[in-house]
Amino acid sequence: MIGALRGGLIVSCQARAGSPLRDVDTIVRLARAVVAGGAAAVRLNGPDDIAAVRAAVDVPVIGLWKDEALRGPDTVFVTPTVARALAVVDAGAHIVAADGTTRPRPDGRTFADLVAAVHERGVPVLADVATVADALAAQEAGADCVATTLSGYTTGTAGGDGPDLDLVTELVARLTVPVVAEGRLATPEQVAEAYARGCLAAVVGTAITNPAWLTARFAAVAPAAPTPSPDATAPHGPATAPYGTAERS
Ligand SMILES: CC(=O)N[C@H](C=O)[C@@H](O)[C@H](O)[C@H](O)COP(=O)(O)O
């Protein structure tokens, strides 16, 4: 299943509570639209979206289940528990994406425990990491592939506006498992550069599936530009919502 992603574009179709797109049927329509445009796989958050999209498209589904109440630079919030990972499997995901860092988890289990439980169900695991050290530990724990998703979203990793392509290069050089480029990829040129650096596949989310974020970029240069809200300019907005619709997905 991981090999099926090779060279393809993965599109993340996610909308948080508070977004006008936060509706299962809307996510299904988004997923069908990106598949029509050539997405080789989709990345989805939450059992309801995963189950509905799985039934509506033919491409692989990478599933995760965030706990937004835990979101922050020092906390594990992307599929943080074994129970959530298994719920993602039950919803029909072909691959489970989960925080692959070594930080403590709310259920007191390790990432290796989560990988073992998901593997027991015959499903591969994509580890979302922020650093080379995270990635090496995730590989050691049994992850089937590793993504740069969390670079810029943890204490000690600089966010900025662009993707962390240097991390892609380093991971490709140091890991034996495949590397997925993910996080703040916003142009076809950046995606091409990620592939040139040897990633298995690239994930684009916000720049394809978040029209509020996209609109804010255009509105900002209009002569009657509105004063941007903090959510429209902060790369990931405040950890404690309320979610700004112009924020990244
Ligand atoms: C940090 C975090 O919570 N990342 C999430 C992981 O599922 C999503 O919110 C991102 O949209 C996804 O990683 C794609 O990235 P971008 O939207 O930048 O293309």
Account of the protein in words:
This is N-acylglucosamine-6-phosphate 2-epimerase. Residues 224-249 are annotated as: Disordered. One of its GO terms (cellular component) is cytosol. Pfam families: NanE (PF04131). By secondary structure, the protein is α/β, with parallel strands linked by helices. It has a single domain, classed as TIM Barrel. The protein is 35% helix and 13% strand. It has helices at 24-36, 47-56, 82-90, 111-120, 132-140, 165-174, 188-196, 206-209, 211-219, 230-233, and strands at residues 9-12, 41-45, 61-64, 95-99, 125-128, 145-147, 179-182, 201-204. Strands 1-2-3-4-5-6-7-8 form an eight-stranded parallel barrel, surrounded by seven helices. Helix 1 (24-36) crosses helix 2 and helix 3 (82-90) runs parallel beside helix 4 (111-120). The longest helix is centred in the first third of the chain and has 13 residues, at 24-36. Residues 233-242 have low confidence and may be disordered. Bound molecules: N-acetylmannosamine-6-phosphate. N-acetylmannosamine-6-phosphate (LRY) binds at residues 12, 14, 64, 78, 149-150, 153, 182-185, 203-207, 248-249.
Number of strands: 8
Looking at the structure, the CATH topology is TIM Barrel
CATH architecture: Alpha-Beta Barrel
The ligands bound in this entry are: N-acetylmannosamine-6-phosphate
Overall tally of structural domains: 1
Helix/strand class: alpha/beta
Biggest sheet record? 8 strands, parallel, barrel
- CATH classification, class level: Alpha Beta
How is the largest sheet built, in terms of strand order? Answer: 1-2-3-4-5-6-7-8
Straight-line distance between termini: 25 Å
- Give the percentage of residues in beta strands: 5-15%
Low-confidence stretches: 233-242
Give the CATH H-level superfamily.
Aldolase class I
Shape descriptor reads globular
* Tally of separate helices: 10
Order of helices and strands: EHEHEHEHEHEHEHEHHH
Cα radius of gyration in angstroms:
17 Å
- What is the averaged pLDDT score? 92
Organism: Actinocatenispora rupis
Function: Converts N-acetylmannosamine-6-phosphate (ManNAc-6-P) to N-acetylglucosamine-6-phosphate (GlcNAc-6-P).
Protein name: N-acylglucosamine-6-phosphate 2-epimerase
Family: Belongs to the NanE family.
